[in-house]
Amino acid sequence: MTIPTVPSTTVAHDVPRIRRDGVVPLIGSTDAMRALRDRIERVAATPFTVLIEGESGVGKELVARLIHALSPRSHGPFVAVNCAALVETLLEAELFGIEERTATGVRGRRGKFEYADGGTLFLDEIADLSTAAQAKLLRAIQEMSVERVGGQGSQRIDIRIIAATNQRLDRMVAERSFRADLFYRISGVEVHVPSLRERRSDIGELAQHFLTRHGVSNRLRLSEQALQALEQYEWPGNVRELERTMERGVALCRGDVIDIEDLPVHVRRDYSEVLLPSLQQPETLRVWACRYARLMLGRTGGNKRQAARRLGISYHTLVTYLHAWESLPHGDADSLTEPEGHSTVDVSRRALTSHHGTRDCHFAEENAPLRPPCGIRRPHGPVRRLGDAG
């Protein structure tokens, strides 16, 4: 059995429509997504309980539906339960059902376990259940039987349990906020759904899919600058956030091309700070390199050695770039957009001035090239190497 790679029309929060062949495909061609498809295919063929782990918005329910669609239970129902939305006082009635006339005005009805009989029960955000609710759930999973509220006997059920969480259940078990026996009951087979940051090369494919899905024109596409901005963004909301961003772009663009100005400010910030000013002025490669070094220093909280490692250059070269930036006519550059909370300019200046005149200001790493970048003047003062005496 193979899983098609035809683009899907769903993300984590949507209810996917299962195709007639019973398959809900996933979007993405990275190694991470190929590994995920392979794991889903293997897991779907078994009857075991599955625990799906991943950040919010990565598509955990979509994965659960795909497991169900590829399993021998695909002919049965798929019932999804949002555990975070269950009210404690109504939890038993919601999950296990309630008998007729249990209380005045109460009508009898089946619970989620009974609705899922013969199919799959998906327990989303299972970590949000209270410890009391966890105990009730554990008993039902162990015995595969439920007793309605107000009922006189239990009823056997035939279901497969798929649970999902965006938290580390093993840590919650260590903190005693999640029952260990329930954790070991549901964590026999684990499936990790990668975040969008772990598969950045899929962003373009996903974005174009959402443009096709929500756009009024089939010719709608992203500009090169907009795509680069999307690939640089961290995406804390993952695929769900990307879809909302594409909806915004569709609503604001005036033609067939979504440009960087059509993206939210927080999405295009990094691109705007580094590349866009250089393209608009235009600036030389020297100025752009100085600007990028300054931004990376801000990202590391003013830690020059860490910034140098992330840039792949020596400590001395980084200091040279930062001094060159300060010597440029627009070195103060206070008009640039800065992240909330602290200014990259301020962090850079603090890092440059906190040790000014001391050894650390011009302290070079061992074997670091001493020749500064072309066109950039060498910082004042002697350069010391690791291991030098004195």
Structure notes:
It is a single chain. The protein is of the alpha/beta class. It has three domains: 31-194, P-loop containing nucleotide triphosphate hydrolases (Rossmann fold), CATH 3.40.50.300; 199-268, Helicase, Ruva Protein, domain 3; 283-385, no CATH class. It is 41% helix and 9% strand. It has helices at residues 31-44, 60-70, 91-96, 112-115, 131-143, 169-174, 180-186, 203-214, 224-232, 238-252, 265-280, 285-299, 304-311, 315-327, 344-353; strands spanning 50-53, 78-82, 120-124, 145-146, 155-156, 160-165, 189-192, 221-222, 257-258, 363-364, 384-385. Helix 11 (265-280) runs antiparallel to helix 12 (285-299) and helix 12 crosses helix 15 (344-353). The longest helix is centred in the last third of the chain and has 16 residues, at 265-280.
How is this fold's topology laid out?
Blueprint: H1 31-44, E1 50-53, H2 60-70, E2 78-82, H3 91-96, H4 112-115, E3 120-124, H5 131-143, E4 145-146, E5 155-156, E6 160-165, H6 169-174, H7 180-186, E7 189-192, H8 203-214, E8 221-222, H9 224-232, H10 238-252, E9 257-258, H11 265-280, H12 285-299, H13 304-311, H14 315-327, H15 344-353, E10 363-364, E11 384-385
Parallel strand pairs: 1-6, 1-7, 2-3, 3-6, 8-9, 10-11
Antiparallel strand pairs: 4-5
Quick recap of the structure?
The protein is of the alpha/beta class.
